[in-house]
Amino acid sequence: MDAFRRTGREGSGANANDILGSLVGASSVLVVTGTEHRSRRRELRAPFARWGKDFQEELYGLAQRTVRSWPTGRPVALHRRQQRLMLDLLLHTLLGTADGPVADSLRELLFLDLTDSRDAGRWARPGPPPAPWPHLAGNASRFDEALRNAVADAKPGYGIDGLVGSATGCQRDTLATVMVTGHETAATALAWSVERIAHTPHVLAEIDRRVPARDTAELERYLHLVVLEALRQRPVVPLLGRTLDAPYTLAGRELAAGIELGLSAWSVHHDSAVHPQPRAFRPERFTAVGDFALPKDPAAWLPFGGGTRSCLGDRLAVTMVRIALTALVRAFQVRPAHSRSEPPRRQSITIVPGRGCAVLLEPRPPLG
User: Fold this and answer.
1) What Rg value do the Cα atoms of the chain yield, rounded?
2) Residue 156 phi/psi, 5° resolution?
C-alpha cells in the first residue's frame, strides 16, 4: 500500500489515465501531475463533497420519479436503467436539470459507449489495451461542443457554476472528467448493491422492517452501510495500478522506474484477516463508520483507490447510490429473479453483475 499512498518521484497514477487524455482534456485532474495535480485536487475536493449535500432532495425526487417507471411483476435486468438514472442524477447535479437539448446531447454521446464495444472480449486480445470509450472518441468534436454548451448554459448555483477557477478550459475538462468517469461506475455500484440485497434474506428483512417508518433516517443510514459493504464485496474497479517513475524498494526488492505495480482491491476485500467472513454480505460490519462517512482505513477498504490519486468523487458517488437505492426500496420490494447470485463479469475496466442485475420488483402498498 505504501507505493499507492506516496506520490512525487516514487510513483504516479497519471500514466494509467493517458488513454483518457484526449477526452477529459489536458487540465483534467486525472492526467496532470506534480504540483498542478495537488493544486487541482485542493480546488475540487470541496465542491465535489458539497454537491451531494446541496442537491440531495432534488436528486431524490428525480430518482423517485424514475424508478416508479421501471417494470414490475416480471424479471427485469436493471443495470441499463441504472446507468441512465445515475447519468441523469449527475447531469442534474452539474447542470441543474437532466432535461433539455444540452443534457440530451451529453446523454446520447455517453450512451453510445454502453454497447457491446465495451465487452470484455476487446480487452482480452493481445497487444495494447483498447480505448475504453471508442464511440465517444470518434465523436470528439460533438462531445467538446456539448461540454462547451453545458458550461455556458448550466443553471446558476449548480455543479458547473460552483467549480473553482475562471478558466473555461478547466471547467470543460472537469466536466468531461466527471461525465466520463462518474456515472457508469456509480451505476455499477448501484447494480451490485441491488443484487446483493436481493440475494441476502436478512438484509431484505432489515430493509422491509425500516421502510414503513415515516422517519427515513434509519433506513438511509442502513442503506449507506449496504452500499459500503457492496463496494467491499464487489469493488467496481478490482485492480489498481501505479507506474514507478523512479526506483522503488518493495519487500526488499529493488524495482526499476517504469515498472507497473498492481494492487488487487478484490483480494484485499476478500482477505479474511482483514474482513472476517468475507464471503458473507454483512452491512453491519461498517456500523462503526460515523453518520454517512466512508471507512478511513485505506489498507482495508479501497474501492476508490488510495493515496493522492484516489477518486475525488467518492462521497458524491456513494451519496448518489444511496439516494437511488432509497427511492427504489421505498417504491418496491426487491426480489431475486434467479436463485443463484450473479457471477461477476468484466466490462471494460469494471466488474458488473453477470446477468445485468436481474430482479423482480413488487410495488409496495402505500404507506399509511
Assistant:
1) 20
2) -60, 140
